[in-house]
Write a structure and sequence with these properties.
The protein is of the alpha/beta class. It is about 35% helix and about 15% strand. The protein has a 5-stranded mixed sheet, covered by helices on one side. The longest helix has 27 residues, at about 130-155. The radius of gyration is 28 Å and the shape is elongated.
Amino acid sequence: MARRQTEEVNAGSVADIAFLLLIFFLVTTTMDADMGLGTVLPPYQEEPDTENPPKNDRNVFEILVNANNQLMVEKQEIDITQLTEATKAFILNPHNDPNLSAKELKDIEFFGTTDVSKEIISLQTASDTEYQAYLMVQNEIVRAFSELRNDLAKNKFGKKYDKLNKPEKDAIRKIYPKLISEAEPVKRD
């Protein structure tokens, strides 16, 4: 009986193939980048701004999120699903309620002299508030401004806010400025 001789496998090009596959996957794979929140911070000031008087408490819409992710708006507990409408009602204040945001008359391009909202949205969380709860609150606040701006754009220009040109968008942003103040998280003892 004749013994078979085992043949060797030529592995010289395996390293080259593996290297080429590695480069192929590195080049063709996309990485998801964390986008974060699109928040623009005001520039740092050494001295306090003396031109702007202190803000009126009437114009501050207080939103608090506690450690149990419960939402308090203007010292009343509400559900997250009600936050968008509560924010819009505060900003619009159609009946000039003294407990809601005040308006001031300004001359705005495309609108002439019109009421401009003076609201500031104040958001404060506990140090151990879940990040998901914080994001949900942020989303509802942004949704309120988006809906208000879209409604005004449709009424004035007949198209959605994102379809407007820059001067038209600027005019609407002057009427509904998105002023969100985020206070230092409350620490639990």
